[in-house]
């Protein structure tokens, strides 16, 4: 039996505030991987105000949920402003970027295809 946790870097069987699990100081983007395999990736991010992740794409659909603050997401040239509790799906293979309008935190879930198209 595999004893390795499928969800890592976070306490199990404890009620937690997800926003408290990752923090960024000025000038930082901090990430914490909670799950990673060939099919799914779950990562928490904290962005200091003014920080960003430049334009890139993914072979999987990427779903972001803002858990604190406000972030700007640019998907295939279109801007979206997301506030706490809001979610956006960025389709696979579309270029996208992430910008911290103010300090914010998000959870990113990427679902990868069974086979690359």
UniProtKB/TrEMBL annotation:
Domain spans labelled Cupin type-2: 44-112
Listed SUPFAM superfamilies: RmlC-like cupins
InterPro entries, alphabetized: Cupin_2 (IPR013096), RmlC-like_jellyroll (IPR014710), RmlC_Cupin_sf (IPR011051)
Highest taxon in the source lineage: Bacteria
UniProt-recorded name of the protein: Cupin domain-containing protein
